[in-house]
Amino acid sequence: MNSFSKSFPMRSGARSALLLVAVLAAGSQAWAQNAGNNAQRPMNVVQLAAQGVVEVKQDWMTATLSATKDGRDAATVQTQLQKAVEAAMTSLRADAQAGQMEVSTGNFSISPRYGNNGKVEGWQGQADIVLQGRDFVRITQSAAKVQDMTLSGMGFGLSREAREKVEGEAQAKAIENFRQRATAISKSFGFAGYSVREVSVNASGGGIRPMPRARAASLNMAKMSSYDAAPVPVESDRAEVSVSVNGAIQMQ
User: Fold this and answer.
1) Tens-place pLDDT, residues 84-127
2) Alpha-carbon distance 237 to 209, whole Å?
């Protein structure tokens, strides 16, 4: 028995009907997807921000003493710097007190000094000692006793304890301002209240601020003798600590 198959051409009307069904199916799927997206999209959501600022007197001082040496070879310069730092640290440790005046070594560097011909003609180096704490008088008076070092930098900021306290106050202000704004905005749009969808809290300010060069230069300790180690009059500025609250609310 012989078997055979035969294809029959599809009429134009049938092709049109199938095409219409495909278009309707695609349209229905797109409509369903858009409807689902619209259903998931949050409604009556407002983004807003608020800030709390507290001004406080800076209670932390940082002073840097520096020694510079120059010589024909690096070993000599290094030895001279080490002796200067050791002598200064011995003097400063006697006055050190936790929280009031803390002493630590800072930068220690030696680099070649080049002549006009591009060749190394010698070596120069610098060593730093950092004094920091709440007792400004103790710091300046102790620094004035140090021989062979000069005051190269000074700055003021907030101690960790003071910063934490002030940040707490600024944060409370920022949150209260956020709540007041959220309530006012919700009522303005005719809603009875709101709920918080998301929120972030960030703090800034109150860091160590360096003293301007003109003022720092006037406090050159090198010109003071051990018999004239009076405390240098210094005055810290006021600092602003700010906390910002950013978030989104759902008006209800």
Assistant:
1) 999 999 999 999 999 999 999 999 999 999 999 999 999 999 99
2) 9
